[in-house]
Write a structure and sequence with these properties.
Order of helices and strands: HEEEHEEEEEEEE
Largest sheet: 8 strands, antiparallel, barrel
Helix content: 10-25%
Shape: rod-shaped
Structural class: alpha+beta
Number of helices: 2
Distance between the termini: 110 Å
């Protein structure tokens, strides 16, 4: 009888604690479910807010819409020339000098008008006039009765060039400014009026030019953009011609016809028009 009473008492004492543990476990399960539901609802709410705040997707069909693209998501890089030339005219003025003639000092002014079919190809009309004088060496030779085939020099040149511009780039000016430039090559044909050598101290020598020779011209140079309508330009040009020169010495005349070449360096400014509305 006593054993039965003790067994019943133990059941009464232990059962509530076991039941309480089960209740706590069940309540924890409900709390975990509720927490998951709350987090899910919060995430859905945040996503809905994000969707409402997200800007509408931009369809870029034109260049002017590129600024609407989001940074680091839709990136478009388009290289445009700072100084566009397509369908524009280029007028230029320049100073020139002959740098390979030992018998003459030649300095001049020039100009040209260019039409650009596109960014690579153009055609240019050229006119250059030179002030020519004998060098000291030429006068000394003439005074001694020595005549050379180099005693003629370019006084006036006019011609037409075809220009090709395959290189476009930029360089840094002392880390203060970026200057775009084009590098071009050209070939053309023209006509040259020549200056002949003379010496006031030797009347026995007379040099006469008999023709204005057809001249082949090749050149290379660069155009540095200063603004969208003005640029600094330099080039080196090489002229090839075959003049007929008559030299009379002591009443004896001889005619020479040799291929000659003159090398010129030119510096100047270019002006582009009309305004580039497509830039």
């Amino acid at each position: 009888m006593i054993k039965q009473i003790l067994f019943v008492l133990s059941i009464i004492l232990i059962a509530p604690s076991l039941f309480a543990d089960d209740i706590d476990s069940i309540e924890n399960l409900f709390d975990a479910d509720e927490s998951r539901e709350e987090k899910k609802a919060e995430a859905e709410a945040n996503e809905a807010v994000h969707e409402r705040e997200k800007p509408p997707e931009v369809q870029v069909n034109k260049l002017e819409n590129l600024n609407q693209l989001k940074s680091f998501e839709d990136v478009a890089v388009i290289q445009k020339r700072y100084l566009p030339k397509t369908h524009r005219f280029e007028g230029n003025i320049n100073a020139a000098a002959n740098i390979n003639d030992s018998f003459f000092s030649s300095y001049g002014l020039g100009g040209g008008l260019t039409y650009n079919f596109n960014e690579r190809w153009s055609v240019e009309g050229i006119l250059r006039w030179f002030s020519v004088s004998n060098s000291k060496a030429a006068n000394q030779l003439l005074e001694r009765g020595v005549v050379t085939n180099g005693m003629v020099s370019t006084k006036l040149f006019y011609g037409l060039d075809l220009r090709w511009t395959p290189i476009y780039g930029k360089f840094s000016y002392f880390d203060k400014k970026i200057i775009p430039f084009d590098h071009y090559f050209s070939i053309g044909i023209g006509q040259t009026q020549l200056e002949t050598g003379s010496s006031s101290n030797n009347s026995n020598i007379k040099i006469e030019n008999l023709n204005n020779p057809i001249t082949l011209r090749i050149s290379t140079g660069e155009v540095f953009a200063l603004t969208k309508w003005m640029a600094f330009r330099w080039d080196v040009s090489w002229h090839f011609m075959k003049p007929d020169v008559r030299t009379t010495k002591n009443s004896v005349a001889t005619v020479t016809s040799d291929i000659q070449n003159n090398l010129f360096i030119n510096f100047g400014l270019s002006f582009f028009f009309p305004e580039a509305k497509y830039r």
